[in-house]
Design a protein that fits this description.
Elements: E1 2-3, E2 7-10, E3 16-21, E4 25-27, E5 30-32, H1 39-53, E6 62-64, H2 79-82, E7 86-90, E8 93-94, E9 97-104, H3 107-116, E10 118-119, E11 122-123, E12 133-139, E13 142-143, H4 155-162, H5 164-187, E14 190-201, E15 207-210, E16 219-223, H6 236-241, E17 271-272, E18 276-277, H7 285-291, H8 312-316
Helix pairs in contact: 4-5
Length: 318
């Protein structure tokens, strides 16, 4: 159906989508040629963890968090390659805005604040420093660009795009999701500085959470024990961006990108929940294990379908 910077999406029926998270890494809207091994599985398991944990706040698109050939058996599956990185979801119409919540002043919000004292037209107190905690979490939507960078917009602009009632509901749910997740994480010694949610609408009009949730690609995670206002705090994608491949353009992959951070293999730490290199999210391995306790999905026994591939889905629906 489509190929994104990280995920490939297939449509086996009008009701469902199959989403496969690959190991690609992107920076500045470019996909780097050197993948991070198992990154797709890691992102999928993190999203599945949070989809389960937040289902009491808002329904989400997950039908099966680890589907196999029991779904749509007429399709060709190469299951060993797909296991752990594939989800079966309900097809929904995505909203044209992204729902960003900020609890701390960082990234593009910090840049805007330095110029105007506002973030997405929300006036903030004077004298804030980079990475300062905000008096309260704020909803700062953006456009969903097909190419190039997303653009921060005001709530009123978001309402003009999707309607006032829907914009208010998205704001309410986004703030509730962030407060819940940030509270859970902070109990484990981890700060969620900001994050992005995406919503979609089912045919019956139900608003649901879609795409990914609270992953290193969509969020900033900081270890609370080393948090220090007044300076920037990075994450994996910032590390890649701050170190342009080949000393210049984006055409070569960051040196050592396949080990999450070039030149820092020794700092990766233990694998989170058996899957996640803690260094990918900028956390100590102990903190990461606490946050994602019970991360992995139970593995299923499936028939050996080596040599066969899910790409038949795309052929079936072209």
């Amino acid at each position: 159906m489509r190929r994104g910077k990280v995920r490939d999406v297939y449509r086996p029926s009008d009701e469902h989508l199959l989403i496969v998270a690959c190991d690609r890494i992107s920076a500045f809207d470019h996909v780097l040629p050197t993948p991070i091994p198992d990154k797709g599985r890691i992102l999928t398991q993190i999203s599945n963890f949070w989809f389960r944990k937040t289902a009491h706040i808002v329904p989400n698109h997950i039908v099966d968090p680890n589907p196999g050939p029991e779904w749509y058996p007429e399709l060709d599956w190469h299951y060993p390659e797909l296991e752990g990185r594939t989800v079966l979801v309900r097809a929904a119409r995505p909203l044209v805005i992204e729902a960003i919540v900020r609890g701390y002043l960082s990234g593009s919000g910090w840049k805007e604040y330095q110029k105007t004292g506002t973030v997405c037209d929300i006036r903030l107190p004077e004298g804030l420093r980079e990475s300062d905690r905000l008096p309260e979490a704020i909803f700062t939507p953006s456009t969903k660009a097909q190419s190039g960078h997303d653009v921060n917009i005001s709530f009123e602009q978001a309402a003009a795009l999707v309607g006032m009632g829907l914009a208010e509901r998205v704001r309410e749910l986004s703030l509730a999701l962030y407060r819940f997740a940030a509270g859970h994480a902070l109990e484990q010694g981890i700060i969620i500085a900001d994050t992005k949610f995406e919503f979609g609408i089912l045919e019956n009009g139900t608003l649901i959470l879609i795409d990914e949730i609270l992953t290193p690609d969509s969020s900033r995670f900081w270890p609370a024990d080393s948090y220090e206002p007044g300076r920037g705090s990075g994450r994996l994608r910032q590390a890649v961006r701050a170190r342009p491949p080949g000393g210049g353009g984006m055409g070569q992959g960051a040196p050592g990108a396949g080990t999450a951070r070039g030149g820092r293999q020794e700092d990766q730490g233990e694998v989170l929940g058996g899957l996640l290199p803690a260094d990918q999210v900028g956390l100590s391995s102990t903190s990461a294990r606490r946050l994602y306790s019970g991360l992995g999905e139970p593995r299923r026994r499936q028939p050996d379908l080596r040599g066969r591939t899910l790409h038949a889905v795309a052929r079936t629906h072209n």
